[in-house]
Every structure is written in C-alpha cells, then in structure tokens.
Amino acid sequence: MVKEKEAKSKKKPVRLTLRVKWSVAVGLTIFLTFIIFAGIMYASFYNNLVNQEKQTTKQTRDLIVQRLSGFTNNLKSGDVMPLMMPEYYQNKDQNPLTSAFQDTIVSQLSRSDMAVQIYDRDEQQIFSSQQTKRVTFKSDNHAKLQIIRQNGKRLIVATRPIYAETNRQLIGYVFIVNYMDNVQRSTQMLRLQMFVLGVVAVLFSALIGYVIAYRLSKRVNVISDTIKEIDRSPESAARIPNFSGNDEINDLADQFNQMLDQVQRYIEQQKQFVGDVSHELRTPVAVIEGHLNLLNRWGKDDPEVLDESLKAASQEAERMNSLIEEMLQLTRAEQVESKNVQEITDVREVIMGVVDSIQMLHQDFSILSDIEMNADVSVRMTRNHLEQILIILLDNAVKYSTKRKEVHLSADTTPQEIHIVVQDFGMGISPESQQRIFDRFYRVDKARSRERGGNGLGLSIAYRLVKAYGGQLTVDSVEGSGSMFKVTLPTISESIPESTDREDD
Are residues 225 and 238 in contact, defined by beta-carbon separation less than 8 angstroms? Predict the structure, then answer.
C-alpha cells in the first residue's frame, strides 16, 4: 500500500501541449471579444426597440387625448365607443382626416400586447381594449410615461389627463400599458442568433488556433529533437534546419545554431588543447624524468652530473612554463568574440608605444617606423590584443634577423581599413613553409627556433586574434632576404590620411 501511494504521488502532472493551450487561449479570447461586442450590440438594439415602443405608446396616447378633447363634459362610454371601436368606422360620409386619425388608433388597439383604457374624471373606467395584467390605474394631473418591471418583464405605462379644448376642464384620463411582446420576441431571437454565432465563432477560432499552434509546435518539436540529439552526442553536427518565414522562431533557431557552432568550436579547441599539451609536454617531461633517474643513480655523488642535470631540468621546466602560458594565450585568442568587444583603441598610440618598448629591449637593433595615419584613427578591439599582435610580429622579426639588424614597421589607412606591415631582413621563409607558418607549433627551422626560445605558437596567436576581429594576417617572404607580415584591420574612423610622420628609432 505504501509503495502504491508513493507511486501515485510520483505520477507526472497532467501535461497540456502547446497546441491545446494555444487553441484554448485563442478560443477564449475570441469568445470574450465576441461576448463584449455582442453585449454592446444587444444593448443598443434593445434600447432602440424600447425607445421605438415608448415613442409609439406616447403617440397613441397623445392621439387619443387629441381626439377626445373635443368633448366639453365628463366623458361617457357612449361618447368614447364610436371613436374606439372599429365597427363604427364604416360610415362613408366620414371625414378622410378623421378616418386616417381613427385608423392610426385602431392599428394600435389591434395590438395584442397593448392595453388602452379610458376613465372619466371620477376615475371610472368607460373603455378598455383589453384587461391589464395586475397594473392598476392611478390618476395624475400630469402626463407620465415610464417603464416598470413586473414579474421579470419590463412594461411601458403611459397616463395623461384629458382636458376639454373649449373650457380646459378635466373630462377624463387615458391609461395605456404596453407589454412589449414584440420586443421580447425580437430580443429572444437575437439572443438565440448570437448564441449560435458565438458557438460557431469559438469553434472556428479554436480550429484556426489549433492549426497555427500545430505549425508553431511542429517547428518547436524540430528544435527539441535537435537538442535531444546534441544531448546524446555533444560532438554531433546536427543543426536546426532553416524554416520558412521570418519570425521569432527563425531568429531563435539561428541563434541556437550559432550557439551550437560556438560550443562545437570550444569542444574542438579543448580537444586540440589537450592533444597539444600531451604532445608538446611529453619531451620536456621525459627529459626531466631522465635527469632525475640519472641523479638517483649516479648524480648524488658526482657534482658535475648533479650540476648538469639540475641546469637541464630547470631549463626544461622554464620551457614548459612558457609553453603552457602561450597555449593558454592561444586558447583565449580563439575564444575572442569581436561582437562583444566595445573598447575603442587608438592605433597610432599603440604602435608608438610598442615600437619604443621593443627598441628599448633590443638596443642593438634599429627599428624604423613609418606611420601614415591621423591620430584619430581607431579600431574596435582591446588595447592589449593589438599590443600583443605587434609585439609578436616585432619580436619574431628581431629573432629571425641575421646580419642586418634592422626592422621596418609601416602603417597607413583607407576609409575602411588600416594596414600595418612589419618587415625584417633575416633568413626568410620558404614557399612551402609559408602555407603552414600560422599553424600551431609549426617551426620553419626547429633546431634554430628552439635556440631562439620559440614554441611555434606566437604567429598562431597573432593570426587568430587578427581573424577574431575581422582582419587578415598575411606573409610575403623570400628565403635569404627576409619576411614581410601585413596586418589588415577594419577601422571605425572615416579619416583619410593627410600627413606623413616618419620616426627613426
């Protein structure tokens, strides 16, 4: 029993799909909108009918008063009956105006939902077209027209005293009760029609909502299936297909695909980083391990072996530290997203600062700078990344120079781009090596590169930084004559160079 209760308590709650929710929401929205407008239309229609009935009742009352006001004494049944009963209208000699007047009254008296009663001045009934239903006459010296409620129904009650035209003496009263049966039938028919139309509108809107929700949920299901596939295999190349139309779901799919591409790049970078670390650190670790074994066997008592092993181990440890630092820099360079960078960097200022720093470190070199750009030329990138690119290129130019200890740096600009060129006059690069110069850990001359302290990562870092900011890094080199590296970056300034500044450091 306990297990059954626990199993019941763990049951998943009822899940309403997006289609059902959307259909219900659209249906209710349309229904409520229809109810509001139908209510307004119904009230307007009902009020118009009631106003028409009030106007008809008032006109009937006033016509009867106008006709009976021709008498001079207290009204009697014999005076009123000829004017109110249709069988007295057959006199051919009757005045046409009187006939028209009487026809108007007769048409109202013939209505089954209108009761007309006439009383004398003593409030004695002398004429009645039909008996009123629990509505009693009350005399009043003023004309009245009001709506009352009886047994849940609204009635129009009209009263008016009758005065003789000649002496203005009270001779009787007119009392009319309009039950508005026609209004009730019309409003009942209207309510029935509105109900039918409301049901049809709700069903139709729910169907339309379901179709729309089905189309939307179909695309959402495609996104969900793609996420599940990525969850099963993080390295999968599955992506959300392009949907027809241009809406928020398409934007979501595009952003999700971009996120997957970025995650995929990070996974590949992580795998490559781990593979590079394991490959590049294998040699220094083996060297350190070999020297430690040598010390353990013979070096404890041999000062020369001890000193040599310690120097070798220290050198390899230093190289390992440098290698790890450069690999971390390379990983960070690959993760740069230029669209998220808001920093603006003054290109001329950074170039001058880096040239001064390199010249100070290598005083035996002559670093010539030729900067043809205005002071307001800027790029959208972090300052330290631009400095890092220039330092890598200038440091490589110094390292791989041979007899001619001279490095040239030039910079110019166009309305859309800046161009920075670093040229050395050293050993140069072969055409085959130029194709791979920006690959990680690639060295043109591994032996000589190791002597200069290089790990083959500097140009890879510079290349990926330039590429991350929408630029290009190219090389043009001739073996034995030197190399020329050109950096092209998009500028955010529309300045056109107007002056030329040359500095010889």
Answer: no
